[in-house]
Protein: Fe2OG dioxygenase domain-containing protein
Amino acid sequence: MIKSKIVEDKLDTLVSRYAVPIIDLAHCGKSVINRVGQQLDKALSEKGIALLVNHGIPDEKIKAAWDQFDYFLDLPAEVRDRYSRKDGTNYGYVSPGMERFDGKTPELRHTYNICKLDDKNIPREAETLPDFAEEITTLANDFTALSTFILKALEVALETPPKCFLDKHSEMLSGDDVNMTTLRMIYYPAIVDDEPGQSEGAVRCGAHVDYGTFTLLAQDSEGGLEVQLPGGDKWERVGHLPGSILINGGELLSIWTRERYHAVPHRVVVPERAQIRTRGRHSIAYFCHPDNSTMISPRDILANQTEATEDSTDEKIYSAYELIQKKFSDTYGPSSQESNES
Structure:
């Protein structure tokens, strides 16, 4: 079944060349956690990415969330503006062109960040968006549950002390003041070639690496996602496997594992093929972060491995919050606390 879906993709992609590890999460239990841990360890250390199948989040839930975001984008501008992301925060709506990852190139996408499942983060327009909050909250909880399973599998893979990762991620989606975990809804509008300046030099998301522990990404179609695999500088089109969720490691996980796991650079370009770029594209990203107060030290994660003995005794240890804010500052300047992960 998986092979037949891959063959349907006629583009030359990592998926079509079977160059992305595929990890089956079916029949989750203790033995499956051990297997998944081993497969994640191999995938993140060799490729930095993998595709998760049979992950337990129904397509219908994900598609319903995309529909809800479409309804939100159809609201009058004055209504959408009530939910715009404010300076110094990481939750809310961002319109196309507002984010410029390299400081100059507008990014052609609508995004909505949710950091906490409350009225401040989630639109609750009873007349125009009656189901938005319920459906997005349910999906966010599903992604949190999937992330919890992955954290358990990583504990097995890295032979950490019991609950080492779980305890350090106990506040996911509790608000960016305590944990930077974020559910991000994304819509890339169609690129119409006869609209002056719309596609020339434009990007959908600039090149970057994610900051946190790992990212889960669900997407509805092929739409220009590219990565640089470890050891290379060539941009590779990832491709699309329907029903799968892509996982990629973040910088904090790379630091924690002394770069055993890779944080791969990635971007979303405007596709060359007209039939692809002239249709809109949806995705949902779940950025899994540790609690802000967590100290990021390989000595905690590699306690049972030889790498731990190589630590410098005078190595300075930073909290997750300090490291993430440094990344924001490097990207946007010293005054910014905004996130631009894709």
